[in-house]
Amino acid sequence: MLNEFEVSLQPVDSFTSTQLVKNKYENILQQLDSAIMLFDSEGVLTFINMQMAKLLEMPRVALNGCNLLQILQNPDLNRFKKKKIIKIYRETIFQRKRYHELIDESGQHWLITVTYGDQMDGDFLISMKDVTDYKQIEQTAYRNDKLATLGKISASIAHEIRNPLTAIRGFIQLLRPHLLQLGKDEYARIILTEIDRANDIIYEFLNSSKPSAPQKKIVSVHSLLKEVILLTESEALMTGCQIVLVEESSPLYVSIDVKQIKQVILNIVKNAMDAIDELDGERNGFIEIKLKADKKYVQISIRDNGRGMDPNTLAHLFDPFFTTKEGGTGLGLSVSYRIIRNHGGVISVDSTKGIGTEFIISLPLCTGC
């Protein structure tokens, strides 16, 4: 009888050795965070890991040994995924593209890499990696850069326009006695009023594109939200919308610039009413403002049952000048983003087309207040 040491020295046949190596590498591929599938030179799927099968929402046993056409004809594969697979196939074969980007139904960003060539012996390796976090970082950096540029442009515009307006105003005031003698004082009054209105517009634009440093004071979040609801109640009733406040029993306090934060919340609530109004009475409008807190932050959730947004709109929602409203400036949410960031907070949004939208504003909790 062979002891344990002698057994370990017994030769292993080449088939068993190859199978062990294959199993080892397949196990490694299963543990990767990337989704992987491998087609041989005949176009037959020879390997797919669990992550890829999960993304396709199909069992691995139903996919292994199939060619691309058989996979596309599988009734369990939804229409969205079929369209994306066909698009990637065409771009790879006809345009020789090796890298593809797509946004799935839930708004997640994926980087798809197709590896083929002599080193692959005719095989095609397709890998997919979730790059949503990287995209969010990239978009945040891009958004911050645009906001900084916007601030510089607005300051320059304000300076260049205000100077001639000031000069015009001065000359009109000098001419006013002569216009009064001619019985045309009304003209002077209108000109001065319009110059002042132009100055007010410039001031509002400058203030909105480059919010001033917050003048903070400690306030009750409950009181702030109550005031916002009072300001919007009449407009909500006109659009057939109900606003409900759900809050925690314990009082919550934050250190904020009340005017700025109120501006942010009012802007989101009014956007919610607009989204509900666009439904044209398809269902009763509903806006829920919910308040809760953890150890560090107060969370203000503003959820509506309006028309919702698609992933592309969501991706650009906080970009300056991006708007889906006719006649909108596209500054409201980009300014809101900067105001919340200046308060050390975070603003996020989740939306589903046809169902509704939820904004969540997180602000540092004032402890010991």
UniProtKB/TrEMBL annotation:
Pfam families: HATPase_c (PF02518), HisKA (PF00512), PAS_7 (PF12860)
InterPro entries named in the record: HATPase_C_sf (IPR036890), HATPase_dom (IPR003594), His_kinase_dom (IPR005467), HisK_dim/P_dom (IPR003661), HisK_dim/P_sf (IPR036097), PAS (IPR000014), PAS-like_dom_sf (IPR035965), Sig_transdc_His_kin-like_C (IPR004358)
Keyword annotations of the record: ATP-binding, Kinase, Nucleotide-binding, Phosphoprotein, Transferase, Two-component regulatory system
Top-rank taxon: Bacteria
Phosphoprotein among keywords: yes
Presence of keyword Phosphoprotein: yes
Enzyme class: transferase
The Histidine kinase domain, residue ranges: 156-367
PANTHER family on file: PEROXIDE STRESS-ACTIVATED HISTIDINE KINASE MAK3 (PTHR43065:SF10), SENSOR HISTIDINE KINASE (PTHR43065)
Protein name in UniProt: histidine kinase
Organism per entry: Paenibacillus sediminis
Origin organism lineage: Bacteria, Bacillati, Bacillota, Bacilli, Bacillales
